[in-house]
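Supplementary Text 2. Reproducibility record for the structural model of the 482-residue chain.

All settings were left at their defaults, and a single model was retained for analysis rather than an ensemble. We include the record here because the model underlies the residue-level annotations in Supplementary Table 4.
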Amino acid sequence: MWCPSREPLIGSSLTVTRWLAHVRGLRQQFGVTRCTKPSYGAAPSYCWPLTVAPPRSYRARAGTESSVPWRMANVRPSESDQGRLWLTNFVADDVPVAAMLLDSLTILSEDVFRSGLVRLATDVIQQKMDLGPVALYPVRPAPIRTESDVTNEHVEPAIDQSIAPGAGSELIIANIITELTKTLGASNALMANPNLETMRSYKYRNVILLDDYSGTGRSVLSYLDRWMSNRTIRSWHSYGWLKFNLVTYAWSPRAARALHGHPLLKDVPHAVAYGFDFDSAPWSEKERARVRKLCIDYAINKNMALGYKRSEGTLAMVHTVPNNLPHILFNGKRWDGKRWQGFFPSGYRRLSPEQQTEIAGYEPLPPNFEVLASTVGGARLAQGKIADLPRMQPLTLVMLALRDGVRNADRLYQQLALSSFEVTRLLQVALRLGFIDEQLHLTDRGHAELRHAQTRPRRVNLELQGSDEPYYPGSLRGVSGI
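Retained model, structure tokens:
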């Protein structure tokens, strides 16, 4: 079937926003609604050659369909069985604030976490394998010391260190590393957990550390310090023979500050997503202050009221619930003196089977387009023509950030609530359309597109204004020749 959106734009003087409006009108005129496309990793479900499918957050606000199979939760956390029970801990005036906190959590499902981390790690590994053999290690805690080795300092790479029973995150990461080595490994070009002699024999040039989530950065710092304690590793790194990279699904601003400047990490950690703390939540300053007060007022342990080291985390995963979440999600003191009803089950930091069914995959909506545009100096966009074209909004926001000098992909997804995959795809589209150059600078065409996107749309009222008054013609033009 013919699709008007597949008509070429070559040689046309129309801007992209005008073209999309034109395509939308043709769709309505000819009754063309969709074109069949592969679902994941292919072109968007609506066959527009000049745009890309926006992230789920933009689609949710715009009411458009998703071409990426994100698994969404059945209910919001505050509407789940355990969520309703947890809200009974609070007095009536605090229930709305508690519900806002609960519904601002991100509950990462197993399939989204695994597919995202494997995809990101695959990209990084393939880049590094061009430079030499790559060694993979999971970020793991130091082994528990016994009386016999209490005076010995533990260093990395560890020799035959087994995974402790009940270690949720470490088991998942170890399994992902096994999958990566089987998929990408060729001879000794990629190896999991090689010892020091193996690294020396095969001249490993890159070490990639895998983690699921870094909320405070302390576990990663402790692990890196144990590598620094190895004099051989320290020597190889100082000569530039060995480089370290961190690949994690998510990390927070607090972790970014903690890891910044570590001698082993010269590059910014690779992550799918960034944020997941109170400062990243779509709250006003007044709401943020009320949430902090709620966490402190109802906490038993004031030191853990805002999570470990006051990190104020908002991310939980099916396989683990980090300890940087507010402590009232686990325990607290009720207003009526009764037993506290925790949102997460006590005894182990994981979702209950019921919660895995109800809320796994839940994501709160990020700031709307107007708020995101204001963060990159584009407050006028909310009143411009781009406001009626939600599928072009993510690309326009990225172009605005580039115009303001933000040319680092990590900073882009930090500021615009986009995943690293979405930022990469949007940059490729902008480059293909001629909006940016190879150095990520806006071209003349890109500047022209931004100016047009900020233009206020012309509103025309085509409805006739009716009146009950009789009409009398004021002149009789054209009757002189009768």
